[in-house]
Structures are given as C-alpha cells and as structure tokens.
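Hey, weird one. I pasted the biotin--[biotin carboxyl-carrier protein] ligase sequence into the form twice and got a warning about non-standard characters only the second time. First submission, copied straight from the form history:
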Amino acid sequence: MIKREMILAQNPWLTDVSVVAETTSTQIDAKNDLVDKKLFIADMQTQTRGRFGRQYFASNGDGIYMSLVLKISEDVKDYTILTAAAVLTAIENLTTKKPLVKWVNDIYLDNKKICGILVEHLLSSNSIIIGVGLNFNIESFPIALREKAGSLFTNETPTITRDILIAEIWSQFHQLSSSQDFFNIYKSHSFILGKTVEFEENGHTIIGTATDLTETGELIVNSDGLVKVLSSGEISLKKWL
C-alpha cells in the first residue's frame, strides 16, 4: 500500500492524501469530496477511463492511479501541459528513463504509452480534477494493447517505489506552476512536432505537418498550405509518422 505520510511530507501544500486499496475511479472519489488540494490514490481502479471516455488497462498494485482536486487559478494557462511536464520532470529526476509526450496528454517511453492525463473542469464549483494513470511496473498487458502500451519499468526491478514517484510528481507540479517553465519542458519533450499527423475534423480526415504549439497548448498544423490550430478538447490524433 502506498504511504500517504511520505507524500504529504514532501508536499506540505497538499491539504490531505486519501489512499485506498481499490475504487471504481479516483476521479469519481474526487468529485464526491471536492476539497481543494486533496489527492486521491488507489492501488487499483475498476472503471478506468481517459479523454473522450476511452478505457485503459489497470493492474492491481502495479500502476499509479490518482486524482487531485484544485481550485482553478488564472496563473495556469493549461493544467494538462503542467501535469505532463511534472510527470516528465519527475521521471527524469528519479530515473535514467527518457520519456516523451504525445499531444496532448499521453506520456510515451520507447514508443509505447505509459501514462495518460485527464483534466476535468467543474465550473459549478470553480474546481478542476486532475487524473493521472501511470503504468509503473506492469509485466503483461492484454494482447490487444501489447503493441501500444508500455510501463515505466518492464522486465526489470524498479529502482524507485510508487510512493517516491508520486511525491516527486506533485512536488514538481507545485514548483512548475509557480515558475511557468512547464510549457518549455512540455514542448521540448514533444515527439509530434515536425511529424506528419492525421486527424478528423467535422467528419473529414485531414493530413498535415505538426509545426508548433500555442501557449495554451493548441497544436498548429500545416495542411497543404492551410494553417490549422487544433484544440485538444475537440481533436484527437489518429496517426503520426
């Protein structure tokens, strides 16, 4: 079981940390207890989901499943980019791994997805819930996912514990939210920029070259001389080459 005391000790800015053995979803747990800066963690989730309602694979005790409640701050332009930068920085600080990010919310390692981020806005309470699902030490995935899904540690003994990584992720999150360096970290770790991408817009498939990111995280794509600015809330990349 993950030790909440160690996470709180490194992150005194958190108001509380809840750790349970199993839950349907830490996102749901957070929605039912909207305490600002409270972190919800589970060893296992039974109803995992990501952007656009997509499900992903969870493994008991082998992954990191957590959600943070926050009051919305005008100082942060994009919480998805901030969280991704925190995850990237934490992994690089604690390991020799070199993760990269696929626009907008997926962390990759060795060409396989190891982490997804989901940010939900609750306008009625001026809050957001940041969900992070990270494959920490999953040895085996369902056949349908083996070519796409990976783990931070695969076929090797982890050099850190989940507690240590969780504590470092939220420590970096807190530091980066104040420094505003997170956008540059995110952009420098992107493996989409410069690549040919395929996406759907209003039912039409469009192919173009990803050229840049806006400060608020939109992807700029050049398609046959026409520049398009893609919103992460409306567009999902289908392919990238």
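That's the output from the first submission. The warning seems to come from a hidden character in my clipboard, not from the data itself. The chain has a mean pLDDT of 89.
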